[in-house]
Amino acid sequence: MGKWNTAGRRAALTLGLVAGLSLLSAPGAMAAELLAQAKARGTLRIAMEGTYPPFNFKDPKTGQLAGYDVDVARLVAGKLGLKPEFVTTEWAAILAGLAAGKYDVIVSQVGITPKREQAFDFSAPYTYSSPQLIVRKNERATYASLDDLKGRKLGVGQGSVFEQQAKAVPGIEVKSYPAAPENLQDLAFGRIDAALNDSLMVAYLLKNSQLPIKAGPRVGAVERMGVAMRKGNPQFKAAVDKIINDARADGSLRQLSVKWFGTDASQVPK
After folding, report:
1. Angstrom distance (rounded) from CA 216 to CA 139
2. Which of 1, 40, 124, 193 could be a cystine partner for 152, CB 3.0 to 4.6 Å?
3. Pairing of strands 83-88, 105-111
């Protein structure tokens, strides 16, 4: 369930957030400092979907978890001197599980939003992304915003947040697709004028496509993703923040990002 179907993913996470807030308000929800607990245990329990390529998924060849999130999680655990212990969890319940203490952190492209920050702490961002267009390589038209697509056909993921964004602009002929390949094929053959997706998925899709298409302009706000954790663990948060900021500074995050997307997702898009 990649960002191609982002809307359902985010709606499910909202329900999980409500459940998480309820659990956090219960007596005894707060425990001892997480850093000391994890050090004593020797492991960092990390939740992720495991069904969200290229971020976190099971490699069909090895049966092991792989992806950008997995590499970032291993980096964080290693720098803390801990063994990563992965817990695959359905997206709808992932925040509630964190609130209940079923794992220590979530590393699964959880967007940092004011509402979520009421219930949980987040590390410094390790991923930045934004909505982005895909166009044909020989496209002559210039699209600086979605408004420029009025009177044209735009392909989006069925049920995605991008479908909602496109339909909110009067005059765009929105065509919805169940999966990315069909959308990109229609774009390549001229049946639609552009496609809209998440910038990191655009990079990933183009990296693995032989079609005559290219990345177009970004047409929406930047979203930040971080490591989610329970509140009340300042030492742990400070340690994870330092690891991520150091990895950004020394190029480690960039290296992991380029490996999976062919572009640097560790910096704010320009």
Report:
1. 10
2. 193
3. unpaired
Measured on CA atoms in the order 228, 229, 230, 232, is the torsion positive or negative? negative
Q: How many CB atoms lie within 10 A of CB 168?
A: 10
Same domain, 239 and 116: yes
Cβ–Cβ contacts within 10 Å for residue 258, how many? 16
DSSP-H helix ranges across 120-223: 161-167, 180-188, 199-207
Residue 267 lies in a domain: no
One domain for residues 60 and 166: no
Q: pLDDT below 70 — which residues of the chain?
A: 1-32
Distance CA 46, CA 103 (A): 6
Question: What whole-number distance in Å separates Cα of residue 121 and Cα of residue 127?
Answer: 16
Together in a domain, 113 and 161: no
Q: Is residue 269 part of a domain?
A: no
Model's pTM, two decimal places? 0.80
Query: In this predicted model, what pLDDT tens digit does every residue of 148-189 receive, in sequence order?
Result: 999 999 999 887 888 989 999 999 999 999 877 899 999 999
- Neighbouring residues of 241: CB distance < 8 A, sequence distance ≥ 6: 123, 124
> Do residues 43 and 158 share a domain?
no
> Are 137 and 14 members of one domain?
no
Residues 164 and 205 in one domain: yes
HSE of 112 in the Cβ direction (CA atoms, 13 Å)? 18
* Number of helices followed by number of strands (H, E) in the chain: 10, 14
Name the residue range of residue 175's domain. 131-218
Residue 28 lies in a domain: yes
The string of pLDDT tens digits covering residues 23-43 is 444 433 344 699 999 999 999
